[in-house]
Amino acid sequence: MKRILHLDMDAFFAAVEERRNPDLRGKPVVIGGGGDPSSRGVVSTASYEARKYGIHSAMPLRTAFRLCPQAIFLPVDYDEYVRASTRFKAVLHRFSPVMEDVGIDEAYLDLSDINRPSEEIAADIKKQILDETGLTCSIGIAPNKLLAKIASDMQKPDGLTILAEKDVPVRIWPMPARKLLGVGPKTEAHLKRIGVETIGQIAALPLERLTEEFGRSWGHYLYEASRGLDDSPVTTHWEPRSMSREMTFESDVRDWQVIARTMADLTKDVVQALRRDGYRGRTVTLKIRFSDFETHTRSISLKEVTDSEEAIRRTVFECLKKVELKKRVRLIGVRLSNLEKSGNRV
After folding, report:
1. Which residues are catalytic?
2. How far apart are CA 210 and CA 46, in angstroms?
3. pTM for the structure as a whole
């Protein structure tokens, strides 16, 4: 029988900062952007103390400041978080070679072939991660990835939840529909319009009704997921579809030099990421969002894949010629897609 573990680090960015500066412990800490709550950035992570004030990821920093002016705001130190991520994932590899890396602060492990009790494995993982990183994590173990992911969120922080198929009606169905993986605000609002507020109420709907309301693909997903069904494998390797970088300006800009310099800087960042991971790309896309949130994307496909910064930058500026800059610019993004392995890693 399959046995899948999902591990989620607790308030990861904030926890790394607290480990680096113990004086932050027990205080509301908000990580986001450049650490300036008056800026246009968003919250990346908030400590559990900050979450008590209603602060959460993706919230504008200005909103977080209004909710908790006494919070400590810190800039994102991505390099340090990557180092901590590498260390805790090295621990996971000791327990099983079948690991799926799904983000800087989470991963799946397939424990199906390990002849040890789940509680014992989880306790060992938690202890080794704490000993080597000073950080805590929450773990969910279940027969599939879907249930393991839900389980890891059930007893945060520093939690362990083990689910079996028989637990779905008792422990999963009473949960709010939003707790089901993939259900966001729009789906939640749609469900409420048809009188559905819990996962169990989704499971009670016939497949025909769900596909009628949500379309064939999403309706099928909701039908199976609400019953705790998921046959997706733990994938040890995946190829990215694209690489991109975006920049939201502190204040809307119209200065051509600022726009051009930003495009060049974003292009440089994308190319560095390409070369670091050993890829080349064919399709260049520029994204422009204006002050009124009107957004345009323009793409050009090259004849051959490339990781040439000059060629990609030149193509980005060709894309810009297709956009009329009559309004102030709020955001610029550069993306390279149709990627192929180059065989070279920097």
Report:
1. 106
2. 35
3. 0.73
